[in-house]
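Thread amino acids onto this structure.
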């Protein structure tokens, strides 16, 4: 049973640093939040030094220290060990220096994270007594706080999960790929089409695992109304509805003008519906921007941001499914982003009219 404490200095004043005890291991939590607003563990180094002094005073021995952040869980412990038992004989303040230098290097190559703070959650294996003796020696005030909240990834990290990753995750879940660790949804559904709904948290978990490059577990982010996860899923073009909620309006609206144009030509209707599939346009635009650095019309090369500005310009770029001529495309056919073109609204209109003879 994990316990969670705030460190109290020898003169009785609280230090902004927290640790947990799990049998013979001490987990020391990293700094989080930004200075001032929502900062947590801002006195990381001081807290760590106080802990190490108390361990030594009570004749506990540090057997091993390793980086334990969620983002490096995939790396073997031997490769994220930052202190061995032989090294733990040196004075506490020197240990803190050694640890902070070494922790920065762990997992650096395997993650895209830059900036922010460089402290890590670390875990120390201690010998010389059980959990109760440890907590007596270390002191500290038990904190009534959900430990899991410290596992949560900050919003700026979650925002690396672009519409492209979300759309690919939806495609994979449709194809039967698993989102490991994520179960069925209890409260909400993400609408794929009239017949298919997916658990929103599982979609985001799979997308985030790919986007961030390490295994994302359910405890790393929250789902629900006003969560970053739901915001990003909706920004990616997907609707999320409470479970059991009937979707009344059509999921794939087709403009009146297009409806008239496509009338009596089922393949054109299918083309329009395919292009308007939830999430598809957002995903293609995100991919296009990732590859080319900006959005522009692939036919007339018009750059809408140059003309209309960053805020609204991108709205006039639409996605066109160029594989429309491939008539064997059935209803079960999964769209791939490579089959799509980014066109300005005018070029898209013209391209469709050129398909007029296509039945
Ligand atoms: Zn154009
Ligand atoms: Zn089109």
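Threaded sequence (359 positions):
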């Amino acid at each position: 049973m994990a316990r969670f404490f705030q460190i109290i200095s020898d003169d009785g004043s609280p230090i902004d640093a927290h640790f947990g005890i799990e049998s013979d291991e001490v987990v020391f939590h990293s700094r989080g939040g930004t200075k001032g607003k929502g900062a947590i563990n801002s006195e990381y180094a001081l807290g760590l030094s106080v802990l190490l002094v108390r361990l030594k005073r009570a004749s506990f021995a540090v057997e091993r220290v390793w980086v334990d952040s969620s983002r490096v869980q995939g790396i073997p412990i031997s490769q994220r060990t930052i202190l061995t038992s032989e090294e733990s004989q040196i004075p506490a303040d020197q240990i803190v220096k050694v640890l902070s230098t070494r922790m920065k290097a762990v997992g650096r190559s395997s993650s895209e994270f830059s900036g922010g703070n460089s402290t890590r959650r670390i875990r120390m294996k201690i010998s010389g007594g059980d959990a109760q003796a440890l907590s007596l020696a270390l002191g500290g005030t038990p904190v009534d706080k959900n430990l899991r909240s410290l596992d949560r990834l900050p919003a700026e990290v979650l925002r690396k999960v672009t519409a492209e990753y979300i759309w690919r995750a939806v495609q994979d879940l449709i194809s039967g790929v698993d989102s490991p660790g994520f179960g069925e949804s209890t409260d909400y559904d993400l609408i794929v089409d009239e017949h298919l709904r997916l658990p929103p948290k599982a979609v985001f978990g799979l997308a985030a695992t790919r986007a961030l490059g390490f295994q994302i577990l359910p405890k790393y982010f929250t789902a629900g109304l006003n969560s970053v996860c739901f915001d990003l899923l909706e920004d990616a073009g997907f609707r999320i509805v409470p479970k059991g909620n009937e979707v009344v309006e059509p999921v794939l609206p087709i403009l009146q003008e297009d409806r008239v144009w496509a009338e009596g030509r089922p393949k054109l209707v299918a083309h329009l519906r395919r292009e308007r599939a939830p999430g598809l346009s957002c995903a293609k635009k995100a991919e296009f921007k990732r590859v080319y650095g900006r959005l522009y019309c692939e036919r007339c090369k018009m750059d809408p941001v140059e003309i209309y500005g960053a805020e609204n310009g991108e709205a006039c770029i639409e996605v066109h499914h160029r594989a429309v001529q491939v008539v064997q495309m059935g209803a079960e056919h999964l769209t791939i982003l490579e089959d799509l073109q980014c066109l300005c609204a005018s070029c898209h209109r013209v391209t469709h009219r050129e398909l007029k003879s296509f039945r």
